[in-house]
Amino acid sequence: MRGLCLRFYFSDSPSEPGLPRYEWLLQHARSIGMPGGSAFRAVGGFGRHGGLHEPRFGELPGNQPVLVEFVLPEDDARRLLDSLAGEPIALTYVRAPVEFGLVGGRS
Fold first, then answer.
1. CA 46 → CA 49, 53, 64, 103, distances in Å?
2. Taking the model in full, what pTM does it have?
3. By the 8 A CB rule, do 52 and 11 touch?
4. Which domains does the chain have, with CATH numbers?
5. Rounded distance between C-alpha atoms, residue 27 and residue 30, angstroms
6. Collapsing DSSP states into helix, strand and coil, what is residue 88?
7. pLDDT of 11-62, one tens digit each?
8. Residue 68 β-bridge partners
9. Strands of the 65-72 sheet, one edge to the other
C-alpha cells in the first residue's frame, strides 16, 4: 500500500491543555480516527535556536527532543494535517511518500 509518513518534531514541553505535546498529538489523532501513531524520545538534537538538547542527570523536563510518527494512507494524512491547521500549537512536520504493509504472520 502507498501512503505518507508524517513526522512531527518538538520538545516534550507541555502544550496548551497541559499535556506533553506528543501525548496531545497522539490523543488528537486518535480522536479523529487515525489508525495509529508512535512517539519516540531522541538521544539528542538541536532546533532553530541552536541549543543542544540531550538527556543529562538532573535535566529539567520539557527539554528533550521528541518525534511523533504516523504512516497513513494519503487521505488520512491530509485529514490529520487539515485538523491541525486551526490549533493554537505550532508543529514542525515532515511529509514523505512511503510504501507500507504487513509481512509474515500466521493464518
1. 8, 6, 10, 35
2. 0.81
3. no
4. 2-97 (3.30.70.120)
5. 5
6. coil
7. 776 666 678 889 999 999 999 999 999 999 877 766 666 666 556 555 555 5
8. 8, 39
9. 38-41, 65-72, 2-11, 92-99
